[in-house]
User: Fold this.
Amino acid sequence: MSDVAAVNQLVENHSALKREIAKVIVGQEAVIEQILLSIYTGGHSLLIGVPGLAKTLMVNTIAQALGLDFKRIQFTPDLMPSDILGSEVLDQNRNFKFLKGPIFSNIILADEINRTPPKTQAALLEAMQERAVTIAGHQHKLELPYFVLATQNPIEQEGTYPLPEAQLDRFMFAIELKYPSIAEEVQVVKNTTTTVQETIKPLFNAKGILEVQDLVRRIPVPDNVVEYAVKLVNSTRPNLDTATDFVKQYVDWGAGPRASQNLILGAKANAAVRGKYSPDIEDVKAVAYGILRHRIIKNYKAEAEGISEEDIISQLW
Assistant:
C-alpha cells in the first residue's frame, strides 16, 4: 500500500475509532484526539483533572478500541518500585526467577501518578524512554507498542507529589480535562444509571498501531514547518534573545529540544488524520498547547498575577 493510500485509510480508521470510543465516553473530543495522536506517534500522555471526569474509563475504553493489552496501576503513597517493575524471587530449586510487574503491557494506566513519592514515580523513567526496565543488572525489553497514559489530580490538592521536570518532559502531551457541559453531563447520567452497557469493538491491533507509527514518521515535512516549530520552542526560553518580553517577564524556564521533536511528530499525525499528506504551520499550532503546557515553568510573578501556561503559549505567535 502506498503512503497516500495508507493516510487515506488512517483517516477512515481514525473516524471509526472515535465513533467507537464515543459509545462510552460522552464529549471530551479534544482530549481523545490528543491521546490518539500521541499513540499514533508512540508518545505518552498525562491527563490532568479533578476526580470523577472519567479519566480511567477513557483510557480503558481507548485500550479496548485499539485491541491492546491494558494494565492499571493505582499509585499510592506506599507503592514501591518493585510493585510496578516486578522483582526477582527464589523458586523452589533456589534459582532466581524474574516475576514481571504490571508495567509489562501495551498500555499502562498510571492512575493518580502524583500520589506516590518521587522514588516510585522515577521507576517509570527508563520504561518511558528506553521501552525497557533493568532489574538486578538485567535489562528486560517491553513489548511494543508501549504507552504510559497517566492521570494526575491538580497539584493543589493535599497528599500529592509534583512530578519532576525530567519525568514531565517524557510525556508528549499534558492534557487538561474540563467539566462537561450541562447537555453532556445529562447524557453521562442517562448512560451510567441503567443496566445497559456498551460493548467496544477492537478496531486495531498491536501490528496495526506499529504500522501507523511507521507511516507517521515517513510523512515529509517542509523545512519552513520544522524551522517554525524550533523557533516556537526557542521563544519559550527567557534567557535567549528570541524570547518575547512577555516570556522574559513571566517564565523561569522554557521547553527543551524534545518539545521541538514532539511538535513535528504531533503535527505529522494531526495532518495525517485530516487527510493531509504533509503538515503545515497550522498543524504545529494545533498540537502546541498540549505539548508545551507542561514544559514551561512559570515564575512567581506569573503565579501572583494569575498568568497561566495557556496565556504564555498564546503570546508565542
